[in-house]
Design goal:
Layout (H helix, E strand, L loop, with lengths): L4 E6 L10 H12 L5 E7 L12 E3 L5 H7 L1 H6 L7 E4 L13 E4 L4 H4 L10 H18 L2 E4 L2 H10 L7 E3 L16 H6 L5 E5 L8 H10 L9 E5 L4 H13 L3 E5 L3 H9 L1 E6 L8 H8 L4 E4 L4 H5 L3 E4 L4 H13 L5 H12 L3 H16 L7
């Protein structure tokens, strides 16, 4: 039986190595929506590993994201035969002009627009900031539907691109099916870190993530009878991670940098943690918070962007960048760990609200709306 909807989709987020949050969402769409009647043809600037054998992908190389989107992508999409019902630009921008079919764009957040100094731009930075804003605005104006991942991001889009407000739809990120909480499996990670209790951060390393705030807060905690847990900062290592490591040594903190942690090990990593801390200055969603909640690990998050929206009653929040306020919460975690148990208990129920099934059903409705018809219609 042919698919009800046939969708061209940008697969570049899957071709960049270890999956980021954007890549995770794209893979969930590819895994879930064919089961619900959607067919896909991918486009990319490089080969995409690990895809189903029956998923066609059109590949054409090019240099630079925006340059590829404006010079290569239009011809690639027009060569798809028969033409798709619509095109899904999955990576914040990239809708060519004059396509003979409608488009959807997912704008995960506007962080490079809102916090430009916290983003590592190529040189000259002013030019790349300008090109980014133009590309996002053009995609939002051209799209039949603008998808974003939180109410926070939807409000940010409405404020900066008001003409897109009426076409914006929230489709929250989802907890992956492969993440299965594993109580009691954290011993291996604790042994890896010297057998000591640890607090956990998982995510990228760049100035926006607020690792400096976390290290400053840790250094403010008073010495007491109860020793401080170690701190585990997990994520792919880069120059900023090495700078954080040097800062931690200078402060005399016990901090571990395990680097990238494979998906298959994440459940055990979270099972070994007694607290999850996400100090980011701003997030459009914050997928690691879902892992922590699902694993029953109490969360401390900043008020930066969507984080309190995602964690809600399953987390405690502090003002973004405020090391003193974070230190108060961390000291409470040391002195009164039992007071965090109700937060941990609420986590799994909260995480279940962000299901892959809910993501898939919402995306089907987005695709139907963009294509101008309902599934099952001719």
């Amino acid at each position: 039986m042919p698919p009800v909807l046939r969708i061209a989709i940008d697969l570049r987020p899957l071709a960049l190595g270890p999956l980021t949050g954007v890549g995770l969402v794209v893979r969930q769409i590819l895994e879930e929506l064919p089961l619900r009647g959607c067919g896909f043809v991918g486009v990319s600037d490089r080969p995409v590993p690990g895809l189903p054998m029956d998923l066609p992908v059109m590949v054409a190389p090019g240099r630079g994201r925006i340059r590829w989107e404006t010079r290569v992508l239009p011809g690639l999409l027009r060569r798809i035969h028969p033409p798709p019902d619509l095109y899904h630009a999955t990576w914040n921008h990239g809708i060519p002009r004059g396509l003979p079919f409608p488009s959807v764009v997912t704008i995960h957040d506007l962080i490079p627009w809102m916090l430009p100094r916290a983003v590592p731009w190529p040189s000259p930075a002013w030019l790349h900031r300008l090109l980014y804003r133009r590309a996002v605005r053009a995609a939002a104006r051209a799209a039949a539907v603008v998808v974003t991942v939180s109410e926070t991001s939807r409000r940010d889009i409405a404020e900066r691109i008001p003409e897109a407000a009426g076409r914006s739809v929230v489709v929250p990120n989802a907890l992956p099916r492969w993440f299965a909480p594993a109580p009691g499996s954290g011993g291996a990670f604790r042994e890896r870190f010297g057998g000591r209790p640890y607090w956990l951060y998982l995510g990228g390393f760049d100035p926006r993530k607020g690792i400096d705030t976390l290290l400053e807060a840790m250094s403010r905690l008073p010495a007491g009878r109860t020793p401080l847990p170690d701190l585990v900062l997990a994520g792919a290592l880069n120059d900023h991670a090495r700078a954080c490591e040097a800062d931690a040594r200078r402060r005399g903190l016990r901090v571990h940098f395990p680097g990238y942690v494979a998906d298959s090990d994440l459940a055990a990593l979270f099972a070994g943690a007694s607290l999850f801390v996400y100090p980011s200055l701003y997030e459009g969603f914050g997928i690691p918070v879902l892992f922590a909640m699902a694993a029953g690990v109490p969360c401390v998050v900043s008020l930066g962007g969507s984080l309190p929206e995602v964690a809600a009653e399953a987390g405690l929040a502090f003002p973004a960048g405020d090391a003193a306020s974070l230190a108060v919460l961390l000291e409470r975690a040391v002195r009164e760990p039992e007071s965090f148990q109700p937060i941990a208990d609420r986590g799994p129920g909260r995480a279940r609200l962000f299901s892959v099934d809910a993501l898939a059903e919402r995306m089907i409705r987005v695709y139907e709306r963009a294509a101008g018809r309902r599934a099952g219609s001719a």
